[in-house]
Amino acid sequence: MSSSETELPNSTQPSPTNSDLLRELATLKSELHRRTRGTKLFRYQPYAKQREFHAAGAVHRERLLMAANQVGKTLAGACESAFHYPPWWPGKRWDRPVKGWAGSESSELTRDGVQRMLVGPPKIEAQWGTGLIPAADLMDWARRPGVPDALDGVVVKHVSGGTSTLGFKSYDQGRTRWQATTRSIANVGRFDTLAVTRSSLEPIK
């Protein structure tokens, strides 16, 4: 038998091309984005002043986080509105479903601020559930008439098994629209609007 007849088949696989590697990289990036975009809440790491603000909620009915622009005031309030209470959580814990308000100066600012942080990009409904409220817990929502892409409120699964509700308000609606019903929480963006929400809050327990 000749040597050529005893040679084994060449089992060497062809080397991947640059195009193959780029496609694989794109696939991995897409999967990483899919896995992380719904976990923003669980990756929140408050700095010292934010943590102090959260901790004060355990004993104070009203709190103020006063800081410079773009340093995490709205983020801290939004995270507190959405939290499922990780082990490090120092603040108030609700063991039952709650009703709350969140708002800003106008419907547009509420939409582009706290609604965007909690729910996801206002103009892209397919991405609602990529904000601080995980998609699996975002049970339902209602649109606000007359304001494009704005929500009037959301229904969120509570850890107890029930559902919590959060309504989106604006200060230009006036005080009576805020105090119509008793709420457990109210996340407002300005110190001079506390009087708007004060009468709607239930006593801290």
Q: How would you sum up this structure, described in words?
A:
The protein is an alpha/beta fold and 205 residues long. It is 31% helix and 15% strand. The protein has seven helices and five strands. A five-stranded mixed beta sheet has the order 2-3-4-1-5. The model has no long low-confidence stretch (mean pLDDT 82).
Low-confidence stretches are none
What is the overall shape? globular
Lateral arrangement of strands in the main beta sheet = 2-3-4-1-5
Report the sheet with the most strands, covering strand number, pairing sense and barrel closure.
5 strands, mixed
Binned, the helix content reads: 25-40%
Supply the helix-strand structural class: alpha/beta
Number of domains: 1
Measure the end-to-end span: 92 Å
